[in-house]
Design goal:
It contains 16 helices and no strands. By secondary structure, the protein is an all-alpha fold.
């Protein structure tokens, strides 16, 4: 309701985005939920971040190469801690800022993909209330910074497809090359981006030199990561300490029962509401036609026609959030 009230009114055909008031309110609520835990003692994984960066730039590079193959993150953290220090709050603050930026990015991405700004906000709310995000938003690790880079890559890819500009192509190349340097885990998302670009290939205004630029940037990124990648491959066995997941576990990770059930129930309710509003709409159209023929009580017919109509998306998303 707050979002609909503050939605910026745009000309027909343009893409509506929520106003800064909504985003600032959402960010403030999210920060209130996350900030109280910023000063707690570091968890075991977070102590790795402190250990890697604590003894100078040379040791940071050496430990990144041999033990923690996330060079971009640790280089950033070393430079950052020279200014902010190495307290618990200072070490976790980049993840908190990145989590807030990710909320904004995923809202924008959802609005761009669906051409509906409410869907983008729903995506941001669901994203911000998941347990993993709640945990990683105040975690002195690289996951949130990598996620922001991934979302920025997706947004750059969409802009490149729609506008065909060289700067968007270069942005795609730089962000794609940066991802493994933040965390190798995010490389698993490359196929999804490739499939999306392939599906929309007919819409792209691409030039050959843009692909050459992207390929060159990716090659440089691979070469820079090669030493860390070789060390990771050599020590891969020592990094595996859990058994392979079962199929049921994989399914539970990918498919969350509560939001899927909520979306299905909401869609069914909105379908029934749409049928009802359609019946009312036909009756009111006949009333308006009769008023036009007689030339009397046109204003009354207009008021009669204005009955509650529930569009499918708000109904389904309301039940979606309630179930969530």
């Amino acid at each position: 309701s707050v979002f609909i009230f503050f939605t910026v009114r745009r000309p027909p055909g343009s893409l509506p985005f929520p106003s800064p008031t909504v985003f600032l309110s959402s960010f403030a609520l999210a920060a209130i939920a996350w900030c109280p835990h910023l000063g707690a003692s570091l968890l075991l994984d977070e102590t790795l971040t402190f250990w890697v960066i604590r003894d100078g730039l040379a040791e940071t590079l050496d430990r990144t190469l041999h033990f923690q193959p996330q060079p971009a993150y640790y280089l950033f953290m070393w430079f950052y801690t020279q200014l902010a220090g190495t307290s618990e709050i200072a070490l976790r603050l980049p993840s908190l800022v990145a989590a807030l930026a990710a909320c904004f990015a995923i809202a924008r991405l959802g609005a761009l993909l669906t051409r509906d700004s409410e869907t983008g906000l729903i995506a941001a709310i669901v994203f911000a209330t998941t347990w993993n995000v709640y945990r990683e938003a105040i975690d002195a690790r690289s996951y949130m910074l990598g996620l922001v880079a991934l979302l920025a890559l997706a947004l750059s890819l969409i802009r490149w497809l729609e506008r065909g500009r060289m700067r968007d192509a270069i942005s795609c190349g730089v962000l794609a090359a940066l991802l493994p340097h933040l965390h190798l885990f995010f490389v698993l998302c490359y196929p999804a981006l490739f499939v999306y670009a392939w599906v929309r290939r007919a819409e792209g205004n691409w030039e050959a030199k843009q692909f050459v630029s992207i390929g060159t940037i990716l090659l440089v990124g691979v070469l820079l990561y090669l030493p860390a990648g070789q060390m990771l491959a050599a020590q891969g066995g020592s990094d595996s300490f859990v058994p392979p997941p079962r199929r049921r576990s994989l399914f539970a990770v990918v498919v969350w029962a509560a939001p899927v059930a909520g979306l299905l129930v909401g869609t069914a309710i909105s379908g029934m509401a749409g049928i009802t509003s359609g019946v009312f709409g036909r009756g009111s159209s006949r009333a308006k036609a009769a008023a036009l023929e007689t030339g009397e009580a046109l204003a009354g017919a207009e008021q009669t026609r204005t009955l509650p109509v529930y569009p499918p998306l708000p109904m389904s998303s309301a039940v979606f959030l309630a179930t969530w």
